[in-house]
Amino acid sequence: MDIHDGAPALSVAGLRKTYGETRAVDGIDLVVDRGEVVALLGPNGAGKSTTIDMVVGLARPDAGEIAVFGASAHEAVRRGMVGVMPQEGALLDDVTVRETVALIASLHRTPLPVEEALSRAGVADLADRRAALLSGGQKQRVRFAMALVPGPDLLVLDEPTAAMDVTARREFWQSMHAFAETGRTVLFSTHYLEEAEAYADRVVLMHAGRVVADGPVSAVMAEVSGRTVTATVPGARAEDLGALPGVTAAHVRDGRAELRCTDSDLVVRELLTRYPEVRDIEVGALGLEDAFLRLTGASEAVR
Ligand SMILES: Nc1ncnc2c1ncn2[C@@H]1O[C@H](COP(=O)(O)OP(=O)(O)OP(=O)(O)O)[C@@H](O)[C@H]1O
Q: What distance in angstroms lies between residue 49's CA and the mean position of ligand 1's atoms?
């Protein structure tokens, strides 16, 4: 297959991969348009790395189709259209940072100048250091330089900030942002809702090998960042509380009502109006783990 001008940056259909009994990726469909910055968000074991490995041709799918700019992953990588930043590996201990990046550059027809890739990734000052002497966060930034040097149209980053401290993270995201500002496409995986919120236009939320939510960051955030209201509501039944406006689920345990809400302010107002004896009202954020569970449950309910 050849590179097609009008094709999306990435198009994935029916992707599956099983390791023994584990369905690491269990039927993923995904289209990433050119210029989008997309976060693959999910807890440990959700299938993010397996998906990324297949997208960049490092793992073979059991089933499904992958097209990168309308071509196979291998062809797109060979042509330097895809820059890959793996979670680990790829660095040789005795080779300097500059030599490492130069080696990758030499494999491509129209690479960036090596010094430019080094400085964009914030590792120019480490250019003469051997990989063995780098910290985990510094190694990550060298991997970022290796991903940038082909001059790719699509950057694929697997948990790019995993080993970085706060300063390195900030610098990394600034470089990533500068790359995306040139209209190119980025797909990155992360555990952190905050990273997805801050740096992506769109979030693809994965759980147990499936996509459980996909959309603009604000829409997915609204779904995952639900709130809970707990209160003592004498005499109230769970089904009546569940029918209050703004409540998505209600439980009563040991006299305490636990309400999951789309709009906690509205729910508090309703409780005070309808149940004047309500007391000890607490409003809390729904944890990310709860949110994943809720979204997974919701996705199974509609299957
Ligand atoms: N090479 C492998 N052999 C066996 N099982 C694997 C292999 N790679 C992944 N898995 C399993 O597949 C599932 C998905 O793993 P994957 O690494 O894709 O998830 P992830 O979302 O990237 O997780 P993490 O955030 O921890 O990196 C997990 O249950 C994992 O144990």
A: 7
Q: pLDDT band at residue 298, thresholds of 50, 70 and 90?
A: very low
Task: Please name which of 61, 77, 71 lies closest in space to residue 1, comparing C-alpha atoms.
Answer: 71
Q: Which atom of ligand 1 is nearest to the CA of 40?
A: 21
Q: Is 278 inside a domain boundary?
A: yes
| ipTM summary value | 0.96
Q: Are residues 209 and 93 in the same domain?
A: yes
- 65 and 156 fall within a common domain: yes
Ligand 1 in reach of 18 Cβ (< 6 A): no
Which range marks the domain in which residue 261 is found? 226-285
Residues 196 and 256 in one domain: no
Say if 145 falls within a structural domain: yes
- Give the per-residue pLDDT at 303: 29
* Residues 42, 190 within the same domain: yes
Q: What is the pLDDT of residue 162?
A: 84
Tokens at residue 209, please?
């090998």
For atom 17 of ligand 1, which residue has the closest CA? 49
In a domain, 300, yes or no: no
19 lines ligand 1 (CB under 6 A): yes
Assess whether 46 and 66 both reside in one domain: yes
What total number of domains does the chain contain? 2
CA–centroid distance, 209 to ligand 1, in Å, is 9
Nearest-CA residue for ligand 1 atom 1 is 19
Residue having the nearest C-alpha atom to atom 30 of ligand 1: 45
Would you call 124 helix, strand, or coil by DSSP?
helix
Ligand 1 centroid, distance to 88 Cα (angstroms): 14
- Residue 303 Cα distances to 96, 245, 296, 297, angstroms: 52, 26, 11, 10
Question: What's the pLDDT tens digit per position in 186-242?
Answer: 999 998 877 888 889 999 999 889 998 899 877 777 666 678 899 999 989 999 999
Phi, psi of 226 (to 5 degrees): -65, 170
Q: Whose CA is nearest to atom 8 of ligand 1?
A: 50
Beta strands in 147-226 (DSSP E): 154-158, 185-190, 202-207, 210-216
Domain shared by 69 and 211, yes or no: yes
145 in the same domain as 254: no
